Design the sequence.
């Protein structure tokens, strides 16, 4: 009788332990995690909650910004700048820049999807400033299109008048000294060309890098021809 009672106790204890093991199979925090996920949804799984996600359907495993929108990472691309200086009251770029055209064209042909922005400038002492600034931008555009085969649809021209002042030409034009005219006013009679694989529109500059490069032109220059 003692043996049977002991065995019965062991059997009851085993059932009790088995019941405990079954009850603790699911971690106690599991329900809390599942509840939190239900309360704070992130439908596209990009780490940005739906209530602040401005791009709610980004693909999986992509890099997004703080707004939940895709960050386009360019492994290669074109960022090019050219500056050319004109004689006073002239819209004819000197022949000294012919080699620069060849260099520009080579880069633009290597990146056929790059956009070209051409900015015409004038000095404060020049007359007919609006038309002169525009003619300077157009002469560069037309030369690239008619003489070098660059698609005109890629190029956009802007009138900057005398709004963007420059004093130091050493870092932007290796040919300037050869023009034998180094007055402050002569440094404003110029055209600036920028080409970019990334920038599509100067009115929508999203990143600090491009704002630094194009921000002043976007603020002070008026687009007059696509």
Sequence:
């Amino acid at each position: 009788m003692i043996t049977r009672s002991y065995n019965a106790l062991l059997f009851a204890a085993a059932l009790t332990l088995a019941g405990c093991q079954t009850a603790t199979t699911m971690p106690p925090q599991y329900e809390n995690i599942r509840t939190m996920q239900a309360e704070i949804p992130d439908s596209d799984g990009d780490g940005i909650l739906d209530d602040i996600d401005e791009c709610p359907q980004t693909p999986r495993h992509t890099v997004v910004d703080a707004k939940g929108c895709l960050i386009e990472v360019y492994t290669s691309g074109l960022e090019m700048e050219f500056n050319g200086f004109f004689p006073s009251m002239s819209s004819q770029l000197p022949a000294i820049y012919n080699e620069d055209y060849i260099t520009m064209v080579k880069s633009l042909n290597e990146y056929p999807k790059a956009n070209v922005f051409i900015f015409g400038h004038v000095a404060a002492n020049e007359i007919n400033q609006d038309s002169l600034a525009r003619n300077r931008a157009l002469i560069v555009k037309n030369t690239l299109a008619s003489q070098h085969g660059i698609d005109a649809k890629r190029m956009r021209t802007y009138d900057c008048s005398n709004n963007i002042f420059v004093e130091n030409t050493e870092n932007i034009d290796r040919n300037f000294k050869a023009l034998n005219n180094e007055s402050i006013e002569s440094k404003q009679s110029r055209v600036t060309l920028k080409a970019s694989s990334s920038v599509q529109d100067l009115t929508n500059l999203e990143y600090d890098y491009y704002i630094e490069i194009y921000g002043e032109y976007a603020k002070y220059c008026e687009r007059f021809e696509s």
